[in-house]
């Protein structure tokens, strides 16, 4: 069952249990799978799913499985932090895209996942698994490694216990990932080599917001996905860091 416990007695809590049954590893679910992961009787799940489909919170696909509807993502974008970062970052993301012609990502941390707020598709034929609204593992993505490196210590500890292998090149050894995260904090950028998808490499940097009477905080990450990093890594890092600083300067102090 997904979530942290049994669903409550109210209609709202049961509807939320259905929605929370979805995650990155379970983006398409049958009715019986929804009932099992939400902890609800099949008849109750059937009734709630029908109402959620009617309200466009869920979409029923031709094979009978269900996926989260676009309206749920649109609602999530109304959250002040995500909406603000996305709107402020757009012109800078466009500049990166124009300069690199690569796929550009903007992401924030959502638990042990990187939540993708924006994606601008590149010209190169690189396999891309992300879409706007996708949540991908922190340890397997460039933006995710940046966010994990600057996350609270307890978050990093939990992540080390959940190093799922996505490709043969995904880092699943805690000691090795720990060293990489130290390098991210030291060098100011993270890279991946075919760790999320075969044929795709990434580089990412943190977006920092200034704070009153405190050190700047990392609130998001911006990165690009390219076929390889052998020749252009330094150029890409520079472009990303210029954009990240620009985004950070436009953010109000916290």
UniProtKB/TrEMBL annotation:
It comes from the Bacteria. PROSITE patterns: HTH_ICLR, ICLR_ED. GO terms for molecular function: DNA binding; DNA-binding transcription factor activity. One of its GO terms (biological process) is negative regulation of DNA-templated transcription. Residues 71-254 form the IclR-ED domain. Residues 9-70 form the HTH iclR-type domain. Keywords: DNA-binding, Transcription, Transcription regulation. SMART domains: HTH_ICLR (SM00346). It holds the Pfam family IclR_C. This is IclR family transcriptional regulator.
């Amino acid at each position: 069952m997904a979530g942290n416990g049994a669903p409550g007695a109210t209609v709202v809590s049961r509807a939320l249990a259905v929605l929370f049954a979805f995650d990155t590893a379970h983006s398409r679910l049958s009715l019986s799978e929804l009932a099992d992961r939400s902890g609800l009787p099949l008849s109750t799940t059937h009734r709630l799913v029908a109402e959620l489909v009617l309200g466009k919170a869920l979409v029923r696909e031709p094979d009978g499985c269900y996926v989260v509807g676009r309206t749920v993502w649109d609602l999530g974008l109304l959250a002040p932090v995500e909406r603000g970062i996305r709107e402020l970052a757009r012109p800078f993301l466009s500049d990166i895209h124009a300069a690199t012609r690569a796929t550009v990502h903007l992401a924030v941390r959502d638990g042990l996942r990187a939540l993708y707020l924006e994606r601008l598709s590149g010209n190169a034929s690189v396999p891309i698994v992300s879409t706007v609204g996708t949540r991908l593992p922190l340890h397997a993505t460039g933006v995710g490694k940046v966010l994990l490196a600057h996350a609270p210590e307890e978050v990093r500890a939990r992540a080390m216990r959940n190093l799922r292998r996505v490709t043969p090149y995904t880092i699943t050894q805690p000691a090795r990932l720990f060293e990489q995260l130290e390098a991210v904090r030291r060098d100011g950028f993270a890279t991946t080599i075919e760790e999320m998808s075969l044929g795709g490499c990434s580089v990412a940097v943190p977006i920092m917001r200034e704070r009153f009477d405190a050190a700047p905080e990392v609130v998001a990450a911006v990165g690009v996905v390219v076929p390889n990093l052998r020749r252009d890594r330094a150029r890409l890092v520079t472009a990303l860091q210029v954009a990240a600083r620009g985004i950070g300067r436009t953010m109000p102090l916290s």
